[in-house]
Amino acid sequence: MVDNLWKTYQMGVEQQVHALQGVTLRIRRNEYVAIMGPSGSGKSTLMNLIGCLDTPTEGNYWLNGHLVSELNDDELARIRNKEIGFVFQTFNLLARASALHNVELPLIYNGTPAAERLDRAQKALEAVNLGTRMHHKPNELSGGQRQRVAIARALINNPSIILADEPTGNLDSKTGVEIMALFDELHRQGNTIVLVTHEPDIAEYAHRVVHIRDGKIFSDQPSSRMQHA
């Protein structure tokens, strides 16, 4: 839940840029929401705030009942690791590490014992149909397989929210459809998904589409998929 969120950047002495201007948005558990908007609309800023990568200039953000807009950097890092699973357009995988090692990284950061880490990482890869590729490095995997590794990594801590930023941006359309089918499955399993995209056909996979323009919410409505359901 974000309430009256502002993010202002100081550009020199006189000039301020209001990337977000009083955004209020409630996302419930197990919702599937797409955030859309052109470049410079504020959608990436909003995603960074929801993902605890940044703090608002003004306003409040609650995640699972915690007021995270008031936390310091260390506390934000802890919440990020525990509550939020990130999936990026560029996959953000370690090139020299196997799929398995890439997936277990968040567990290394939070001190999970090695045997449990391996077990959970293997299960996460099996959940995204990559059980047979877990010892391959990213350069031995296709774009779609790399994104599946990234999704498995995002799931490893059973996060409250999966945040996907243009998750099909570097994929061909057939592979993009496969990845979006995987998000459908994750949503059916009870995950809350927030998808940031500028592609209308990708946004339509979500159940609710929020349009941002000039730092404000322009519209918030069910996707046509839900309207026809």
TrEMBL record:
Cellular component GO terms, alphabetical: membrane protein complex; plasma membrane
PANTHER family registered for this protein in UniProt: ABC TRANSPORTER ABCH.1, IMPORT ATP-BINDING PROTEIN
Ranges for domain ABC transporter: 3-229
GO terms of molecular function: ATP binding; ATP hydrolysis activity; transmembrane transporter activity
Protein name per UniProt: Efflux ABC transporter, macrolide exporter (MacB) family, ATP-binding protein
Keyword field: ATP-binding, Nucleotide-binding, Transport
Source taxonomy: Bacteria, Pseudomonadati, Acidobacteriota, Terriglobia, Terriglobales
Sequence similarity: Belongs to the ABC transporter superfamily. Macrolide exporter (TC 3.A.1.122) family.
